[in-house]
Write a structure and sequence with these properties.
seven-stranded mixed sheet, Rossmann fold, binds NADP nicotinamide-adenine-dinucleotide phosphate, alpha/beta, 56% helix
Length: 469
């Protein structure tokens, strides 16, 4: 029997569809899942001529793979990945490539790389974005690890990846060790921020103007034809238009307002603190999910704590227009924060990330795909040393024309008592970054007062301490 070009372990939502994606591109795929039933049902739903080989033990699985073996692990992140690696290790030989395509924490990937590096097994931590559909029809892929493994995998990964408008596959070598999973983590952090900003826009327009979900769907659909064009805006319009079959109401109005999270946004925030990068809008998005989960407390507090009661008096069309600009401006600032974190982390961990390439492979396939990513790619291509995306001419100019709308929209939210945590942090980041002088002089003085932490002066070199009392 002809051996398989690649094997997939873990036939859940993602593994199932990635296996079919490889097969559709002419690759013979070996399959293995802990629960045999999933393997059987995938094979039962396949056409007879599909090149899929079902296997029911890891020994059988490894025996069916062409050497060097290429194995894609698509199991739950965490212990299942470690368990799988331990079980596979005795069955593999030097040169074999083991890819973890799950959302593993990048420091776990660093540790696994360290453990496997002397065995000759090439360990690849690959971020995958695009969800269920992307896995089947073309995801954005972020492989990190040994370059030798990338050279072997590149043709296959280019085949299955999403293609950007110019036809370029949305995959590239990201960097050594845990770089692929690091970049996927920050991608998700940016995704959190983007979703939060959209949610605030929805909240403001809904409450200030009393618009129905279907009216809001029209607005988002229109925005999707503008500079805001993106997958998240597109699905927002589709979500808002969906009717609940049971009640006849818009489905979104029937959904409990408690956002869940799987951890990648939190990891991004935590890591940003570690590497010393400011990502307040990503952190605000995590905070708002946390606050949303206190539903019971919020219901109680809504009856105890007071706030403004007035209604919006302005022109609805003007508010819609301002909100569109505010959303775009805050989105640009949030992406600038995410790219800033990647820049800082690249230095910290020696990943040598190419920011233009990262933006380029996010142009299609992934959840944050957006017209804006073409502009980000162009900004880093024309200035690879760009220290902050906000300084790129296209960003600088758009923010010059949009920041006032962002201020106006936040003020309206404040007046109406609508939380605008994402937009407010985006504007504060923008204003802080463009401030020649911040009040950190006072903080330094306070630190020196209570802890003799010393300070530097603006008029001469040296370290100073004052006896303040
Ligand atoms: P899923 O549908 O829940 O499938 C999980 C898979 O992991 C199943 O095949 C399951 O096997 C296997 N598994 C769990 N624990 C195991 C263990 N201890 N030993 C062996 N196998 C085990 O998950 P998924 O959505 O495909 O996600 C897989 C990975 O991709 C996760 O890391 C996820 O974060 C990441 N990811 C998901 C998405 C998405 O949109 N869903 C997007 C990007 C990345 P059984 O059938 O035996 O339970």
């Amino acid at each position: 029997m002809k051996k398989a070009d690649i094997g997939v372990i873990g036939l859940g939502v993602m593994g199932h569809n990635l296996a079919l994606n490889f097969e559709r591109h002419g690759y013979r795929v070996a399959l293995y899942n802990r629960t045999a039933e999933k393997t059987r049902s995938l094979l039962a739903s396949a056409k007879p001529d599909q090149q899929l080989i079902g296997t029911y033990s890891l020994e059988e699985f490894c025996a069916h793979l062409e050497r060097p073996r290429r194995i894609l692990l698509m199991v739950q992140a965490g212990k299942p990945v470690d368990d799988m690696i331990s079980a596979l290790q005795p069955l593999l030989e030097p040169g074999d490539i083991l890819i973890d395509g799950g959302n593993s924490y990048f420091l776990d990937t660093e540790r696994r790389h360290e453990t496997l590096k002397d065995t000759g097994i090439l360990y690849v931590g690959m971020g995958i974005s695009g969800g269920e559909e992307g896995a089947l029809w073309g995801p954005s892929l972020m492989p990190g690890g040994p370059y030798q493994a990338w050279e072997n995998l590149a043709p296959m990964l280019r085949d299955i990846a999403a293609k950007a408008e110019d036809g370029e596959p949305c995959v590239d070598y990201i960097g050594p060790r845990g770089a692929g999973h690091y970049v996927k983590m920050v991608h998700n952090g940016i995704e959190y921020a983007d979703m939060q900003l959209i949610a605030e826009t929805y909240h403001l327009l809904k409450n200030a103007l009393g618009l129905s979900a279907y009216q809001l769907a029209d607005i988002f659909e229109k925005w999707n034809q503008s500079e805001l064009q993106s997958y998240l805006i597109q699905i927002t319009a589709e979500v808002l238009r969906k009717r609940d079959d049971e009640t006849g109401h818009p489905l979104v109005d029937m959904i409990l307002d408690e956002a869940q999270q799987k951890g990648t946004g939190k990891w991004t925030s935590q890591n940003a603190l570690d590497v010393g990068a400011a990502v307040p809008t990503i952190s605000a998005a995590v905070d708002m999910r946390i606050l949303s989960a206190f539903k019971h407390e919020r219901v109680q507090a809504s009856r105890i704590l007071s706030g403004p009661t007035k209604a919006y008096q302005g022109d609805p069309a003007n508010l819609i227009n301002l909100t569109q600009q505010a959303l775009y401006a805050s989105k640009m600032i949030a992406y600038a924060q995410g790219m800033g974190l990647l820049r800082q982390a690249s230095l910290e961990y020696g990943y040598d990330l190419k920011l233009d390439r990262l933006a380029a492979i996010w142009r299609a396939g992934c959840i944050i795909r957006a017209r804006l990513l073409g502009d980000i790619t162009a900004a880093y291509q024309s200035d690879p040393g760009l220290v902050n995306l906000l300084l790129a001419p296209a960003f600088r100019d758009t923010l010059a024309s949009h920041h006032q709308a962002l201020r106006e929209v936040i003020k309206i939210g404040i007046d109406l008592g609508i939380p605008m945590m994402g937009m407010s942090t985006a504007l504060a980041y923008y204003d802080a970054y463009r401030s020649e002088r911040l009040p950190a002089n006072l903080i330094q003085a306070q630190r020196d007062y209570f802890g003799a932490h010393t300070y530097r002066r603006i008029d001469r070199d040296g370290i100073f301490h004052t006896e303040w009392t």
